[in-house]
Structure formats: structure tokens, C-alpha cells
Amino acid sequence: MNHLGNPHTFHIPVMGIGYSIDTAVRVAPYGISSVISLVDDILMEKMREFYSHKLNIPFQPISRKIKDFRAKRITSYLNLVDTMVKEKFEEIRQAAIEKKDEFDRYIEMLPDFSTLKTEFNELIAAKASIQEIRKWAHNRLRPGSIDVNIMTKLDKENYLQGETLPAEFNDAHAALRGFAESNLESSIVLSAGMNPRLYAYMENFDDFYPDQTGYLKKKIVLKVSDYRSAIIQGKYLAKKGIWVSEYRVESGLNCGGHAFATDGALLGPILEAFKNSREELTREVYEIWSQALVLRNRPVPAEIPEMRITAQGGVGTADEQEFLMDYYGLDSVGWGSPFLLVPEAVTMDHETRQQLIESTEEDVYLSGISPLGVPFYSLRGNSKDVEKEARIVKGAPGSPCPKQYASLDTEFTDKAICTASREYQQLKIDQLDHLGLSESEYKAKYDAIVEKSCICVGLGTSSLLANDLNHRAEGAGVSVCPGPNLVYFTKEVSLPEMVGHIYGKNNVIERTDRPHMFVKELSIYVDYLKNRLTPRLNPANPKEKKTLESFQQGIREGIQYYKELFSGKLTQLQGKVDEILKELDKKEAELG
């Protein structure tokens, strides 16, 4: 179901705050789509300065003292990225013959089943002239999309001279405005659930509405964990005249960064629901959307706009990629963590990349370090954690808070502060000291307080170190948030090698013990139930008992679904069916 304008059937999701900050500059000219995080305007400003100097473009800093500096910084950085990608892509397209290496690289990385590649090979076989090839390249080749991401919960209030600014100056609102006012023709990926106030704010920007031809300059992508969430949010936005162009389904636990566990629902059954209800979703949302456009005196497109369904989280082989595309009818599959080992795609300091290469299953773990209070995948021994532990040993836990993007807690203060900050942790420990707890109770609560880490700085520092940029305010500590799938990738690889791996032209995984992505996710969910939910919830409490039973039931239904799926003729192409079925039996037995 690949569409013109999307030369590839995979995309690179957002990775941390800084890891995909300039991925688009590196991969979009070759037709590969990726996502930039809009959390850190300070990092974006430093990267804009870096690229401006590199390209001899005049750089005018945007001071924190000016009104709306955050949105202006984001707009300026995105416009620069857009310009760089267009120029590089145009070079490739124009160069068709003279700069043959770059042009060949674009064509070579396309999947063998691509109509673009077939057309090009036919031109070559027919001994087409340079002019004909150039004309074809101009009409048919496309750059990858420069998409952006907002975590909707990162929407703290901001202040000017001690006064609270209006809601449109909140962090997520300003980031949305920064994207909306940019030159980009791409999508904004909204993650971490609904923010009604932010969703309402979208109505202020014409680019989110269709023009007379039905064209949407700015598109909405919702990152969702299940079908119910998709239809609720899709209809909610449709009532405002906002069309959701893509539902991006992510595994609840087999992913990088923050992990939003479902109630035991596994990725396979969730994708099955989208497959079975896709037409219904499109039709119901379109009816609401078209009525909302009429009420707003806006043009209603004659045809239903494209609604893409994509998925990501733990995919690691060409077989898995192909199966997801073919069986579930997906439009694209996200490959995140493996690209952390591709220097051509992701900016990262050498030490952190080496740690990732050497990591094992025990090193990539679901932690409590995020100030958002959501489980967060982290790499054991990362330099930000080493920094954090040193402060704890000194008796001064907590981090300085130079960026304050996660300042969302008002337990002790009127103005929100971050739970990873020195200020919050000292106040929380003082409170703890007066509770008269036993030694073991005190230690458990103390450890939970000091575990929080300053990830909004740590997740951006790597790109500063890699580009030798000023990191005095940030320090040298690096946080990194790979998904569990990363540990099966054990070496640095080039961009063409990784793309070749995705399409089955070559194999970059040297380990032979990697489980199927569905089996891996199932294992993680069973572990989560046994080691996180069960110890925390009290079966004597009816509500908590119901939560446990519902989670367990979700897993059981998932196992049954996979047994039927992998016993069917459709999946014999997977090769390891017997092995997968044995693993499913094993996990079922573990549930008791």
C-alpha cells in the first residue's frame, strides 16, 4: 500500500530529544522519512547555528528575551532543515548522470519491488537519454518527509517577569505554532495521549485544513496504542475540522523511550483490529470531518483524504517488515533503535554508541528514571546515570535544571518544578525524614525519589558532544533510550547496509537467538505482569484485582490469537513457526 510521495515502506521514528534532531538532513534527500523532536528549542538553536556556519549562511541568534522565542527558534530551525534537504535532494535529482554516485545511492536503496526502481531499470534498458532520465527523476523522485513530534503532556506553563503567560505560550502550544508557521509540508506526530487544549489550538492554523483541491500542507499523525484510542481521538479532532492522516500504532512495551503499557493487549491483535475496522474508521471520521468543515465554511474535498495505518516497536528483520506490510496492509513500518548504530543517520558521541553496540538484554531495561512518572527504557551505565549516582554518594541528589521542559510538579511549590531536580528531591527527602518509616520502607521510598534523572538534558547532549558544540550548561552526561530490540544489533552499519537489511538484500544481525518480534513483546508483557504489576497491586482490592485479571486476560487472548495466526497458511513464510508455537506454549504456562 505504498503511495507516491513515499518512496520507502519504512520510516525512522523520533528518537529521544536529540538523536533524530538532524536525521532528516542526512536521510530525507534519499527519500527516507524521519521525525524531529520539538522538545528542546535550545538544542535546535545550537544546531541551527552549527549548520549555518557549516554552510556559510548568516546566523542571527533568537534571544530568550524576545516574545515567543521558543516558537520562533523552532520555525527557524525547521525552515533551515527544509532548505538543506531540498537543496541536497535537488542536487541528486538534477545530477542523475554527472553525480552518479549520489543518484545511484538513492535508486539502490529503494526496495526491489518499488515501481520507481522498475521504471528506472526500464529507462536504462531502453538506453534513455540523459534528458529523459532527468525528466523522469524530476517527475517521479521524492524526498523523505521531515516530520516532527510533540509529546502532548510536555506542555508546562511559562512566565515572563513573574507573570504566567497565556496558554498559547505553553511548551507544546509554542512547539505546535513553531511547526505550523514553518515552510514544511509534512506531518506532526502527537504522542503520549490527548491534550484537549492543545487539540483545540490547532484550529487557529489554516495549514491543518484542506485547500480547494483537498491538499493538506500540514498533516496530523496520532501515535496510538490501540484501536479504541484511535477512533476516540480521530473523531474528537474531526469535530474540529482536523483530519488525522495517519494512525501510528506503537507497541506498548517493545519500544524505545517512554513505554505506555496497554492493559495486556498485544501488537498483533491490535493491528488485526485496525485491519478489520480500517474502512469503518475512515468512513465514520470522514462523515464527522466533512460536516465540521461545512460549519466552518471551509472546502470539503471531493474524495476522502488518505488515512495511513503504520506500526512500530521491535521490528528487526525483513521477514517481519514484509509480514507486517502484507498481512496487516500497513503503509509503513517504523525502525527506530537499530538506526542508533547508523552514524550516517543519527548523530551520537562515540562512547555512547560503543556502549549500545556492547549492550546485552540486562543492559537495556525498563527504568523509573523519567520525571514524567512513566516507565522509560534506559541503558544501564549511561554517563548521565553515572553523574546522578555520584551526586547521590556525595549526599546531594538531584540535578540542576537548566532547561525545565519536564517541570510539571506542584506538590511543594506554586510554580511547577521537575521531580529530577535538586530542589524537588531535597524537599521530598525532607518530607520523607518526618514520616517515621522503618529502614526498609525509607530506603525504598528514598531510592524511588533519587532514581529520577534529568533526561530532558541528557537526551540532547549526545549531539552536542558529537558536533563539538558548547555543552557547558548541559554538562557531559548522556541519557539514551533504546528499545529492547537494539541488543540484537551488535555493530556499526552504513545507511545502505541498514536499508538493505530492512528489505532483505543483506543481513546485519550476527546473533542467531533473536526471537520473533511478537514473541519478544509477549515475553516483555509477561515479565511486566509478574515483576511490576503483581507485586504492586493488591488482589484483595476489587479494583486492583480487576486490573490484574484484565491484564492477564489480554495476554491470554493475545497468545491464542498468535497460535491461530502462526498455525495458518498465511504465515508459513515466517520459517520458524514451530519454534514460535513452542515459545507461545511456554509463555502460556508461565501465566499459570
Please describe what this structure looks like.
- This protein is an alpha/beta fold.
- Helix content is 46%, strand content 9%.
- The protein contains 20 helices and 12 strands.
- The strands form 3 sheets. An 8-stranded parallel beta barrel has the order 1-2-3-6-7-8-9-10, surrounded by 4 helices.
- Strand 8, helix 10 and strand 9 form a beta-alpha-beta unit.
- The longest helix is centred in the middle third of the chain and has 29 residues.
- The radius of gyration is 24 Å and the shape is globular.
- The chain starts with 9 loop residues before the first strand and ends with a helix.
- The model has no long low-confidence stretch (mean pLDDT 95).
Q: How many β-strand runs?
A: 12
Estimated structural class:
alpha/beta
Distance between the termini: 41 Å
Count of helix runs: 20
Query: Helical residue percent?
Result: 40-55%
Rg, Å, rounded: 24 Å
The gross shape turns out to be globular
Low-confidence stretches: none
**% residues in beta strands:** 5-15%
Q: Average pLDDT, to the nearest integer?
A: 95
Main sheet characteristics: 8 strands, parallel, barrel
Q: How are the strands of the biggest sheet laid out side by side?
A: 1-2-3-6-7-8-9-10
